[in-house]
Amino acid sequence: MVNRRTFLRSSLASAALLSLTPAFSKREAEMSLLFAPSSEGKEGAGNSTIKSPVPDDDFHLGMAGYTFNKFDLDTTLAFMQKIDVHYLCIKDFHLPLDANAEQIAAFKAKLAAANVIGYAVGPIYMKDVAAVDIAYAYAQRVGVDLLVGVPGTWGDTAPNREVLDRIEQKVRETNIRLAIHLHGPDMALYPDATSIWEDVKDRDPRMGMCLDIGHNLRYGSDSIRDLKRYAKRVLDIHLKDVTAPTKAGHAIELGRGIIDFPLFIKMLRKVGYKGSVSLEYEKDMNDPFNGIAESVGYFRAVQKTTR
Amino acid sequence: MVNRRTFLRSSLASAALLSLTPAFSKREAEMSLLFAPSSEGKEGAGNSTIKSPVPDDDFHLGMAGYTFNKFDLDTTLAFMQKIDVHYLCIKDFHLPLDANAEQIAAFKAKLAAANVIGYAVGPIYMKDVAAVDIAYAYAQRVGVDLLVGVPGTWGDTAPNREVLDRIEQKVRETNIRLAIHLHGPDMALYPDATSIWEDVKDRDPRMGMCLDIGHNLRYGSDSIRDLKRYAKRVLDIHLKDVTAPTKAGHAIELGRGIIDFPLFIKMLRKVGYKGSVSLEYEKDMNDPFNGIAESVGYFRAVQKTTR
């Protein structure tokens, strides 16, 4: 248990960190000036009900575009503003693979107006070399440095070496990283983090994985162990909770399932993960908004309370 | 920082608590049997991604009915099922003060079907002795043991002793407790916890307060200090976050404001609070659902992570 004295001590330590931590948000910096811990019992400043500032993390909460596959971009962006989330992995139903420069400019203007950063594209399935070229040309036109993709199609049972070779060539040409998406027991091709690791470990270091912590766990693999084990190759993360570590496990609001989020978030910090932790919410996809909001609230509280 | 060894040790301690803690939920007990921590690195059982069970708290999350003042009972109950919250303080727009036995029975059947417990009625304003009689007769017909109320009306500047005397008489007759609602700087009558304490401390111990941690803080009073100081008389709690400890402070999603929820929840445990912590969400009252869900997720995560 943290007692009051420990609490005040850690508050002061946090305040001291202020000048050292550039990632500190402006709002929190302002708050700490207004409400710096002072003598106990005094009201206003020193009011124990008022929280101390917490330094920002290097990683950020985002949304996997797939979450909104029943909703248009305007609805998606309005909702993201409401829940105060500002990173989106762009899915093709919001911006098609054949989008031209004008369409891409209009798309990016909408994101900018909503204060949302499109940090990556995908997941994109690349069944052959031609599909790789299309996907990479698209990522270049959109102007992202990360492509979430699958080198193959849903029915494949083995990785396609030719496709992987072409991707590696494209990664070197464009400096756009590839994060291979894993899909747990639902898909034979890349069910878990280890299966991706095996195929990328001897390739360009910009080839890695989008670690879906739910699907990986549904395959029986330990997602927190794998985050640690494969940290160098974890380029994107799909955040979700699931009800069981089996194929029968299904997506659920964060906190209602079996994943240990405090431990997960501590591991993100331990390995120095700096990318997006993007909620891919696959429950109630016709009306996912309350569940997403609950999940976002849960994630934020774990972030705050585990510093 | 909790390292892996400390984590495993605390997991084992939690598992040991199982047989001692009757408040443990069935689901969590089942999970602990399925996923008891075992040898490190082994998959399935011993998977570090799977959280350890956390004992339930003695207090429970609820909803203040006022939150839904733009919505009918059916909408309210359907949403409460969605967010998995099961305690409701009954507001008169859902069940009028003059409801007869038949109307009350129909109302209670709806709550039971939604797995919701109507744990109290109110807030009810009682401007005179006749209003006290009406409110208490209503609470008796509804069958609750707690009435959240204001002994007076919105414009009052001083407590009405005659009304308080009548309430005390009714408390003794009916054994229905009174929780006086405070309203911060918006209302001269009972702006904070101390003002209520002064009026109830020498009265029947079943007379106390509904501590609204947001309004109390907006008055400049320290809600966590007051929860500790007046614990014996805190009979109900309105949960909210606010943006500033002043009249200009307004309601906001839990976690986005200035209240230190980890410290608040630790204090609930420290004082042994056993009642409802009822979210009264006063932002976006025409469309509060996402904000409520986010707040519920935030509260639950703080509960889990501060054990």
Q: Oligomeric status of the shown chains?
A: homodimer
* Alpha carbon gap, first and last residue of chain A: 15 Å
Mean pLDDT score of chain A, rounded? 88
Biggest β-sheet of chain A, characterized?
A: 8 strands, parallel, barrel
- Unreliable runs of chain A, pLDDT <50, ≥5 residues? 1-44
Q: Helical content of chain A, roughly? A: 40-55%
- H/E element string of chain A? HHEHEHEHEHEHEHHEEEHEH
- Count of DSSP-assigned helices of chain A: 11
Strand content of chain A: 15-25%
Briefly note the structural class of the backbone of chain A: alpha/beta
Q: Determine Rg of chain A (CA atoms, Å).
A: 21 Å
How are the SSEs ordered, and which strands pair?
Two copies of one chain form a homodimer.
Chain A: H1 4-17, H2 26-34, E1 60-64, H3 73-83, E2 87-90, H4 101-113, E3 117-125, H5 129-142, E4 146-150, H6 161-174, E5 177-181, H7 193-200, E6 207-212, H8 213-218, H9 223-229, E7 234-239, E8 241-242, E9 251-252, H10 261-270, E10 276-279, H11 289-305
Parallel strand pairs in A: 1-2, 1-10, 2-3, 3-4, 4-5, 5-6, 6-7, 7-10
Antiparallel strand pairs in A: 8-9
Give an account of the 3D structure.
Two copies of one chain form a homodimer. Chain A has 307 residues and is of the alpha/beta class. In chain A, 40% of the residues lie in helices and 16% in strands. An eight-stranded parallel barrel of chain A has the order 1-2-3-4-5-6-7-10, surrounded by five helices. A two-stranded antiparallel ribbon of chain A has the order 8-9. The interface between A and B is large, with 55 and 55 residues.
